[in-house]
Description:
The protein is mainly beta.
Amino acid sequence: MKKNLLCLLFIICAVTSLYGQNIRISGMVSDEKGEPMPSVNVALRHIDSTFVAGCVTDSRGMFALRQLEVGDSYLLQVSFMGCVPQTIRLDNVEKPMEVGTIVLVEDAVSLQGVTVTASNVMKKVDRQIILPSQRQVKASSSGYELLAHMQLPGLKVDGVQQKVSTVGGGAVQLRINDIQASVAQVQALRPEMVLRVEYIDNPGVRYGDTDAEAVVNYVVKRPQAGVMGGFSAINAVTTGFGNDNLYLRANYKLSEFGLDYYISYRDYDERYVDETQTFFFPDGGQRNRVFGKVPTAFNYVTHTIEASYNLTKQDKYVFNALFTEEIEDYPHNDMGEVIREAGKPDLYSMTLAENYSRIPSLDLYYRLFLPRNQHLTMNVVGTYLYSDYKRDYRESGEMGGEPSSQYAYATKGKRYSLIGEAGYRKDFSQVALSAGLKYTQAYTSNRYTGAVDEAVNMHNSTLYGYVQLQGKWAKLKYALGAGMSREAFDRTGEGYTFYTFRPMLTVAYPVFKGANLSYVFNTYPTLPSLSALSDIRQQKTDLEVNRGNPGLTPYRSYNNRLRLSWGNGIVNAQLQGSYLHQKNPIMQQVACVAQPDGSYLFEYSQDNQKRFSQLNGQCYVGVTVVPDLLSVSLYGGVNRFESRGREYAHDYTAWYAGGSVSLNYKGFTFYGEMGNRYRSLFGETLNYGEETGTMQCSYQWKDWNAGVGMLYPFSSTSRTGGYKLLNKLHQSKSWTYIDDNARMLYFTLSWKFSSGRKHQAGDKTMNNADRDTGIAM
């Protein structure tokens, strides 16, 4: 009998123990629009806050916590960066429990989050949201380095020269909390303050007045110390090369004060050009010229000083004021060459060029939070641009000798501009509505002296309005928008008024697990530059003249893109095709003009031509070889260009490829990137971009980061870029060399500090700037 009772008791205990181990709590996490949220942190704690278990949600937003004790009470905590955390009390858990769907609401102002222990990606209809891992943050000392280690698909990041572009050579706009950021601000960005990175690879109507092919927005928590600051420096060892910055932040009550200083300089002793030219004359004759290499000096320095003030009352308003002073000084943008031509003695040419500019600006911003998930933003920017440009071209029988011909001119310019913008956003349960209006008014006055003595006064204005709906219908995500713009230009009673209707459509559909198919269409206008609109004739050499064209008009571009993306947490792949079509684009025009003395001059100008198109196919693969340790990315693509002018037709096919590797171990970091030249055709010019080549190793110790690297480590000579002109009257090919860049050894050093009281500053969500001097060079 006792045996039977003992056996029964043993069975009851075993079953009870087994039942307790099988208890689980499960559920799903979604955002306000009902979209599943992967990689959300889920933690289970006892009532006394003792940790019990934790996990992250999967790609469907699902989670499950297993092997829990029967009869206990718990606190279920759900948190995600930029969202208000949720805590649910669960009393006397007796059996497996399904808690249903937990909705996380975005915290619009504070953006406070939790520590991220892995690199996670969440895809929206118009962007990807990427959470940098702790190792990526620790390995980086600036916003550029963080972006490089994150290896976002379709981007090329040069942390040394502080440049970001698409792998197809397109422009990328960088923002911090939705504010368009300067190089100084991105370089001064502290990676540990970055909550997430929003990668907008199909900019919608909100960015419709820019030429950006992609937008990268760093979402950061503002400095939370009473005083914080630091510096970072990248400087070469054997040549003049540096990108350095110093920054400081201070908080008092609801206010934050900021000061940034950034300096970039180059001082090369030997820059030279390798060039050939062939000129074809109407009488059947031709001239062939070969330009020999004559090393000349090239140097410049740019200073950027920024002073900012921020006043924030959370959930009420944000006021931000930013004063910026930019100074660019190019004392020697010189070029020397030996001109060799059959049957003629050698000539020595020297081009002496100087350029100096100052650009002070004041940016005032206000954001008002309204009831029922609404907010209103307003932004006003005033800018003054002063520029002073000089060019002196000489040819002589010997280097430094008396010139046999000389062409010199100078330009002093002033530009005043005022930019105003207002935006509105309303979030409904399933749809987000946004709308905005932007107006720019500018006045430009340029005075040309020397071979030309003339004043050019120009007025231009732009009015742009847009509205956009973004939401989800069943599994289909969409963004539908439309904009309307009016561009006006006037120069002494001559000019144009140009209207453009600018629709935009983005749709995305999950075709299978981990895969997403998206399509983007948009259209936008391209305006002629102010310098091209100047009716100024400037002679460059005995054979060449630059001429403006006041008759230029804006033109429209139509862009289509289809993309298939897939990822499983280890492999991230993208395959895309795109087609760009431009009607009546502004492209080159070359004419051979007879002179009264019987000679000829070749005039270079621009005109509205027939059409231009670009067909692109591109593939990207990123692999996390060892999580948080080693990752590798590879990309490749092909472009097909078709350029149709009124007097020419050119086609060109160009392949490109590259890749990067990021290795992080404890405090050590290695990063390397390589890529071939990006080649493109526009008008009658083939452009050869720079190669990509960087290797860098660094070490992080407390608040210090030190490293050593090499630019173009596998090149003994550095061709920075080149071009080839395909015109039937004038054919030429040119390469520019800066050998100091090849195998250039450099050191990096950064330091940061923080102390004092905490404060949370609000975020500015729009930024405007004006940088067009309108000078014809």
